[in-house]
Amino acid sequence: MLKLDYHPSGRHFLQIPGPSPVPDRILRAMSLPTIDHRGPEFGALGLELLGKLKKVFKTEGPVVIYPASGTGAWEAALSNTLSPGDRVLMFETGHFATLWHKMARRLQLEPEFIGLPGYEGWRRGVQADMIEARLREDGAHEIQAVCVVHNETSTGVTSDIAAVRRAMDAAGHPALLLVDTISGLASADYRHDEWGVDVTISGSQKGLMLPPGISFNALSEKAIEASRHNRMPKSFWAWDEILEANRNGYWPYTPSTNLLYGLNEALDMLLEEGLDHVFARHQRWAAGVRTAVAAWGLDVQCLDPDVYSPVLTGVVMPDGIDADAVRKIIYERFDLSLGMGLGKAKGKMFRIGHLGDCNDLTLIATLGGCEAGMQLSGVPLAGSGVTAGLEYFAQHPLDAR
Ligand SMILES: *Cc1c(COP(=O)(O)O)cnc(C)c1O
After folding, report:
1. Rounded to two decimals, what is the model's pTM?
2. Do the annotations mark residue 351 as ligand-binding?
3. Which structural domains are found in the chain, ordered by start?
4. Which of 280, 298, 277 shows the shortest CA–CA distance to 352?
5. Minimum CA distance residue for ligand 1 atom 5
6. Got the DSSP string for 241-300?
7. How does residue 1 score in pLDDT terms, banded at 50, 70 and 90?
8. Residue 60 pLDDT more than 70?
9. 205 CA distance to ligand 1 centroid (A)?
């Protein structure tokens, strides 16, 4: 919110790539009275939503829910499958991959961080051939897990997870595959079982359109087997007691009841619309936003069109312009929040989220705030991104059903 001594009129434009705007239908579902988490009604709700959740992860296996942000689910994935001193191979796609790597070190793992060099390395996705080459060198199979970020939220790059699985298979390497799709799930196509992922990590406040506060691990049989023997201390995060209680729709401790009401509603909304339609909707929004960026004469952060993110777009500022100063003007003048450049991208770009409770016209308004804010900041623009974006949406009706 703007710092005013009165309540600003209209809705704040929350166009960061998570938390995303929450649909009213979900907020209303969450406003119902909190119930007894050991009572019969609760078990029915738990079973219903755990079943629907599998469809969104595209898995037949269990999905564990934590009352924690996505970072907790990262820790859960590592601490349930690995042991202190284990080697893990992580790929540096951007700031979130970097944070996960830092966590692995704090948990006394021995992560190896590979990637393309420098800031430019953050403008492309996971290079499956580099993973394959490294795994082929590891003839003794010391590497216990490969960790990659599906949708790198700091840059707007959605990596090809099926290609990572193919690379691991081609190298004949038995490592587990751990994938962070905290910001990808329910906006970008994702297939836990088909892609042979062992642990998928996700969160509530991005594509699932919920407020922050719950997060997920989807598990393969192989991951569950690893959790029975691994030696990293785990208690709150341990899958075994949660899976046991989940059989009847309960949790071993007090779950986030009202967020689970919201999750149940979000799952209904996604499944009613159909996941393919949801993905096509985000792809189209992303294409419209990229059309606007091109009309401004600016570059998007992602340099490889095959991995443009459907969830968010990074807009690179010309040399000599501080992207954070531009964002500040946009926020103060137009009540519009954009994502900041993180880590190596700090000050170089801003990020437009196109996920959650959006539509064509809220995105056009977002582009309007960006355009006017850049003009006020002295960013030289080649033309109107608002006009180009509107034309794109008008000429490309969404009809993927
Ligand atoms: C948001 C995000 C995280 C961190 O999740 P929190 O809920 O903030 O803990 C991790 N990875 C990615 C890719 C994200 O987008």
Report:
1. 0.98
2. yes
3. 13-21+274-395 (3.90.1150.10), 24-272 (3.40.640.10)
4. 298
5. 70
6. HHHHHHTTT--SS---HHHHHHHHHHHHHHHHH-HHHHHHHHHHHHHHHHHHHHHHT-EE
7. low
8. yes
9. 9
